[in-house]
Automatic annotation (TrEMBL):
PANTHER family: 3-(3-HYDROXY-PHENYL)PROPIONATE/3-HYDROXYCINNAMIC ACID HYDROXYLASE (PTHR43476), FAD-DEPENDENT MONOOXYGENASE (PTHR43476:SF5). One of its GO terms (molecular function) is oxidoreductase activity. Residues 5-345 form the FAD-binding domain. Keywords: Oxidoreductase. The keyword Oxidoreductase applies. Pfam families: FAD_binding_3. NCBIfam families: PRK06185.1-1, PRK06185.1-3. It comes from Mycobacterium ahvazicum. This is FAD-dependent oxidoreductase.
Length: 403
């Protein structure tokens, strides 16, 4: 079966859904292919940052988003030697919603999908996996896919790859990337809340390991950070040793840690950081993690992917409406988004170097001088809040998409 569309979007993550919605609101015919039957996935990034919240506002979706159960994170703190020091304060941001909303990503994606489907030019194909690219000579002309009714082809004037760090499309197109060394991996798991604890992106640090505690509705999402390449070693030690490690960093949550019964509950993320040298070829554009895999440090990858989508829609809507997308148009997306991507990855790599000594067993106690400066100059908490919550070169919703 062969179908046609103006723009084929591969992948129903935040970048793909935002791009599809914005282009559809511009009157562009869009078909989005999502390989899963729903958006229910554990431990996807569930942070919605202030600039993304502002985008939802500009799209007329704030009330619908606010009705989704979520928690708000306004600060991040260090705790050391009996004192608590705020190092990130989102309330200092001049944003309409100065906080990070913690919401299951599937709820956000369902909202975006429902709104996009209200547009007559938007088609969502679930359970449909893009398996290869269609080509005429050197030009990508669409995708081959495997759907509920078997294999098919979708011809498109432009194909946009939003299919993540293991992107089929960028691999099939032969696009080359630069990979940066990473010294850590992340293991995700959940712990029930005790009912009286309130976490605020609270890091817990011990010799050779770091925990990130992320507040969620009814539970805490835990990021266990350890040395890269140690997943097999960690699992070989078993769940009791893992509980001991976690319990040492969360002594107030002994009962919650005891609920971990199997290493199958611990999901490993193989962290990688890379960036395509060229984000497009004739007929194909990569954005989000398909163009630049991000470290989880700072939780900014989703925000960056959404900003990519907004920029791509802003630049490409009119050429797609005219059915005349040029190489210059596709290159313009990379030109606009390369600087914020490179700066963000540079900051992440700098932070990563600071993890190295900790993962090798160095003293995890923050220097007293640093804590003292943060206490005396609390406005410094604005700087990481801006980097995490707003980012470099934030994008605004184009006029054609606002409601």
């Amino acid at each position: 079966m062969t179908e046609t569309t103006t723009c084929a979007v591969i992948g129903g993550g935040p970048a793909g859904m935002v791009l599809g919605l914005l282009l559809a609101r511009a009157g562009v015919e869009v078909t989005l292919l999502e390989k899963h039957g729903d958006f229910l996935r554990d431990f996807r990034g569930d942070t919605v940052h202030p600039t993304t919240l502002r985008l939802l506002d500009e799209l007329g979706l704030w009330e619908r988003f606010a009705a989704i159960p979520h928690s708000e994170v306004h600060t991040a703190k260090f705790e050391s030697d009996g004192r608590s020091v705020t190092y990130v304060d989102f309330s200092r941001l001049r944003q309409p919603h100065p906080f990070v909303a913690m919401v299951p990503q599937w709820d956000l994606l369902n909202l975006l999908a429902d709104v996009a489907l209200e547009e007559p030019t938007f088609t969502l194909r679930m359970n449909t996996e893009a398996t290869d690219l269609l080509r005429e000579g050197a030009t990508v002309t669409g995708v081959r896919y495997e759907g509920p009714d078997g294999p098919g082809e979708l011809k498109a004037e432009l194909t946009v790859a939003c299919d993540g760090r293991w992107s089929m499309a960028r691999r099939a197109a032969g696009l080359q990337s630069r990979e940066y060394p990473v010294n850590f991996d992340v293991w995700w798991f959940k712990l029930p809340c005790d009912g009286h604890q309130e976490f605020s992106f609270l890091p817990r640090v011990g010799p050779g390991k770091v925990l990130g505690v992320i507040p969620r509705e009814g539970y805490s999402q835990i990021a266990y950070i350890g040395a890269k390449g140690t997943d097999a070693q960690l699992r070989a030690k078993g769940i009791e040793a893992f509980r001991d490690d976690v319990g040492a960093l969360l002594p107030e949550s002994t009962a919650a840690v005891a609920t971990l019964t199997s290493m199958d509950e611990i999901k490993h993320l193989d962290v990688r950081v890379d960036r395509l040298l060229r984000w497009h070829t004739d007929g194909l554009l990569c954005i989000g993690d398909a163009a630049h895999a991000m470290s989880p440090l700072g939780g900014v990858g989703i925000n960056l992917a959404v900003q990519d989508a907004v920029a791509a829609a802003t630049i490409l809507a009119e050429p797609l409406r005219r059915h005349r997308v040029t190489d210059r148009d596709l290159a313009a997306v990379r030109r606009r988004r390369l600087f914020p991507t490179a700066v963000t990855q540079g900051v992440q790599r700098f932070l990563q170097r600071g993890l190295g000594p900790l993962l090798r067993g160095a003293d995890p106690t923050p220097p007293a001088a640093v804590l003292g400066v943060l206490q005396r100059l609390p406005w410094l908490s604005f700087i990481p809040a801006y980097f995490i919550g707003v980012g470099v070169r934030p994008e605004r919703a184009p006029a054609f998409a606002r409601r």
